[in-house]
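Prompt: For my understanding, could you write out one protein's sequence and backbone structure tokens?
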Amino acid sequence: LSMFHQFVQGPIAQVYTLDVPSYVNGDVDLVMNGVEWMAGHTWGAHRVQLNGNVLSLTQGNLLQRGGTVLDGNVLGWSRGEAIPGQAVWNANLNYHWQVMEGAEDVNLHVWIRHRGGILLSQDSDEATAPVNVLNLQSTWNRRNEPWQVTVGVRNAMNASYSGWVQANAPGDKFYNPAPPRTAFLSVRLTFNE
């Protein structure tokens, strides 16, 4: 378990002036507070690991966003106000099972990821819904052979969510859809010198 408290001087903020995106350097600090945690256990061929974080992201002082003024109002964040674009908390559960060990190795990996809601704009309390994503994969290789085969499914429950949220986006275009349920097969060859 670890706790952190961090100031970021001169953060880069994405701003929009008349729907033209640009980036400016903030003239005050950004404040991050949070807790990160990790726990795990291994017994025999099984391994379980849990990890996650809780995060608070706020502006230390008024960020004038490059001094831009529209309709007489300075666009910015007030002291202590939450900054959009970051999930308040995240959690991961990883399970590994070595199904076979010997001349042939077979491993199974299950990864469940939970992401909390993400604030979309400092002008409202609107946020994305929390999301759970399940990923499955199995790896097979022969001992002393240069190849490895992996098959799996990403987003096995076909959750619909944003892979990347663009905070304060113009025209409410906040979402960038993450891939739907996707099956994959990969073969890796290792060449020795």
